[in-house]
């Protein structure tokens, strides 16, 4: 489906232009987190590796048992496509729990797209590292996607859920 003017404009936006929708820091439960918007080309090699590590830790078993199978090369190409955008969560202060301030704790990967004749923010991934779960980062990242979409004229946030069963 051809892109609309709004989708086309949003896809041309730099990370800096998208950043206005995302607070630079947010405190949850006494812990401070920093947030940044990045394009694929803005990510450092270390950030790409950390993003991939979180994805692999969270999704490897689900992909292996699915009809998709595990194909890391294809998934990396999808994730780090030039149209991909990321909201990256890192530590916002010097927390003393063994992690570095520069460690990626969570992220959402999104693109601006057109689905069923509507301009949408399409969430490809929303992943939280195991040691950063249960503090509200997923909910906050979802709200940020909605805010980014609203500012750039998108009518919906869409995603596809990878259905699987795990024990919590």
Automatic annotation (TrEMBL):
It is found in: Cytoplasm; Nucleus. GO terms for cellular component: cytoplasm; nucleus. GO terms for molecular function: histone H2A acetyltransferase activity; histone H4 acetyltransferase activity; protein N-terminal-serine acetyltransferase activity. Its main location: cytoplasm. Keywords: Acyltransferase, Cytoplasm, Nucleus, Transferase. CDD domains: NAT_SF. The keyword Flavoprotein does not apply. InterPro entries: Acyl_CoA_acyltransferase (IPR016181), GNAT_dom (IPR000182), NAA40 (IPR039949). It catalyses: N-terminal L-seryl-[histone H2A] + acetyl-CoA = N-terminal N(alpha)-acetyl-L-seryl-[histone H2A] + CoA + H(+); N-terminal L-seryl-[histone H4] + acetyl-CoA = N-terminal N(alpha)-acetyl-L-seryl-[histone H4] + CoA + H(+). Residues 1-22 are annotated as: Disordered. Residues 96-163 form the N-acetyltransferase domain. Its EC number is 2.3.1.257. It comes from the Eukaryota. Belongs to the acetyltransferase family. NAA40 subfamily. This is N-alpha-acetyltransferase 40.
């Amino acid at each position: 489906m051809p892109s609309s003017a709004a989708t086309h404009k949003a896809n041309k936006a730099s990370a800096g232009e998208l950043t206005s929708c995302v607070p630079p820091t947010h405190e949850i439960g006494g812990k401070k987190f920093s947030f940044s918007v990045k394009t694929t080309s803005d990510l450092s090699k270390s950030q790409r590796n950390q993003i991939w590590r979180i994805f692999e830790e969270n999704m490897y078993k689900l992909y292996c048992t699915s009809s998709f199978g595990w194909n890391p090369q294809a998934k990396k190409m999808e994730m780090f496509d030039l149209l991909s955008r990321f909201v990256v969560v890192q530590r916002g202060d010097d927390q003393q729990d063994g992690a570095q301030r520069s460690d990626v704790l969570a992220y959402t990967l999104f693109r601006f797209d057109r689905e069923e004749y509507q301009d949408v923010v399409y969430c490809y991934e929303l992943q939280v590292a195991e040691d950063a779960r249960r503090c509200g980062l997923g909910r906050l990242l979802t709200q940020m996607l909605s805010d980014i979409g609203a500012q750039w004229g998108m009518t919906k946030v869409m995603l596809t859920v990878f259905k699987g069963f795990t024990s919590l």
